[in-house]
Amino acid sequence: MENKTRKFLSVKEVASMLGIAEKTVRKYVWQKSIPYSKINGHVRFDNARIDAWLLEKEVPTIDEILN
Questions:
Q1: 47-56 vs 11-18: helix axis angle to the nearest 10?
Q2: For all residues of the chain together, what is the average pLDDT?
Q3: pLDDT digits over 33-63, tens only?
Q4: Nearest CA to 12 among 3, 29, 2, 4?
C-alpha cells in the first residue's frame, strides 16, 4: 500500500504562499471559492488541492490560445 502524506496548511501559510493578506484568504473561505477542510473547527488547506486550484485560475497567454 502506498503511503500518501498529505500536507495541510493554515490560513497564514496559504496567505504567505499566495502573497495575499490572511483576511483575503478568510474571505475566499467565507465565499467558498477556495478548497478547504474544517479539522476540529480549524480551517486547513490541502497543499495539493491549493496547487490544483491555482492551476485552474491560470489565464493562458495569447500564444497558448493561438497555437
A1: 40
A2: 92
A3: 999 999 999 999 999 999 999 999 999 999 9
A4: 29
Residue 19 region by backbone torsions, left for phi larger than 0, else alpha for psi between -120 and 50, else beta: left
Burial class (CB in 10 A: 0-12, 13-18, 19+), 4: exposed
Sheet of 42-46: strands edge to edge?
8-9, 42-46, 37-39
Report the pLDDT value the prediction gives residue 23, as an integer from 0 to 100: 98
Give the integer Cα–Cα distance in Å for 4 and 64. 34
Which pTM was predicted? Answer: 0.81
